[in-house]
Design goal:
25% of the residues lie in helices and 23% in strands. The chain is α+β, with helices and mostly antiparallel strands. The two termini are 19 Å apart. Bound molecules: magnesium ion (2 copies).
Length: 264
């Protein structure tokens, strides 16, 4: 079933999400040539648990060995952090982070440039980020899940990029992955109706080549089938009568336990 959350519940998700937003804002200082994805994972875990009650949601989830997912270049998602994986100048690296706080989840990803990257890589990241922005704008009460998917297709059309369709966004709440699925394709006016209180992880994944993917022998790392570059941006978004509310932005100012008006 698709859950509808109260404003208070959404506020807690936003509080978890603000930790991810702050982490993502901090990471450009750390994502640089010569650093290992294992070091970035350790930094991310330390950052998350320095916030009282917060834990890295991916650690151990379905058996995942890292605290965050770090996917380099042709890796789309679910890259396993490793001290042996050293980032090089020109790489792009997607860092997908989940935080659990007071029993609620938040989920967000960004792709970062390592030093100077190619114009092609910069453009792929820009288009993927723009896709997410257009999708968030479509996440309004009265629209449908299909409107969110159609928004990506509109942005990507004519670019030659592939939209990874085999992986989807999802509801977020008491579990990291809840209903409904939020595909990165769709038809306007189709799919579940967007209602006040829904919380969705919206996450376009694009490739510079084929939309097809495969999973590596480690059982986790998803790569583009033609090993072309891939980018991934994700926000957890609350559907509200006041419009879409990004719950994984850094600037959530309310402290735990603060008096927040409830719509519930
Ligand atoms: Mg994610
Ligand atoms: Mg997600």
């Amino acid at each position: 079933m698709i859950h509808l959350r109260t404003r208070t519940e959404m506020d807690t998700i936003a509080q978890a999400g603000s930790i991810i937003g702050k982490l993502h804002d901090t990471l450009p200082d750390h994502v640089r040539p010569g650093v290992s994805t294992g070091e970035l994972d350790a930094f991310a875990e330390e950052f998350i648990v320095s916030h009282e009650g917060a834990i890295p949601a991916f650690k151990g989830l379905y058996g995942f060995p890292g605290s965050v997912c770090i996917s380099v270049n042709d890796e789309v998602v679910h890259g396993i952090p490793s001290r042996d994986r050293i980032l090089d100048e020109g790489d792009i690296v997607s860092i997908d982070v989940g935080v659990r706080l007071d029993g609620w989840y938040s989920d967000s990803a960004r792709t970062f440039a390592v030093g100077e990257v190619s114009a092609e890589a910069t453009e792929l990241m820009r288009v993927t980020s723009e896709s997410l922005e257009r999708q968030i704008e479509a996440a309004v009460v009265g629209n449908h899940i299909g409107d969110i998917g159609a928004a990506v297709v509109d942005v990507v059309n004519g670019t030659g990029y592939g939209i990874i369709r085999e992986l989807v966004g999802h509801g977020v709440g008491r579990e990291l992955h809840e209903e409904p699925q939020v595909p990165n394709h769709g038809r306007r006016g189709h799919g579940p109706l967007l209602r006040d209180g829904m919380v969705l992880a919206i996450e376009p994944m694009l490739s510079a080549g084929t939309p097809r993917i495969k999973t590596l022998g480690d059982g986790w790392t998803v790569v583009t089938a033609d090993r072309s570059l891939s980018a991934h941006f994700e926000h957890t978004v609350g559907i509200t009568s006041d419009g879409p509310r990004v719950l994984t932005a850094a600037d959530w100012p309310v402290a735990a336990g603060a008096d927040i008006p409830s719509a519930g």
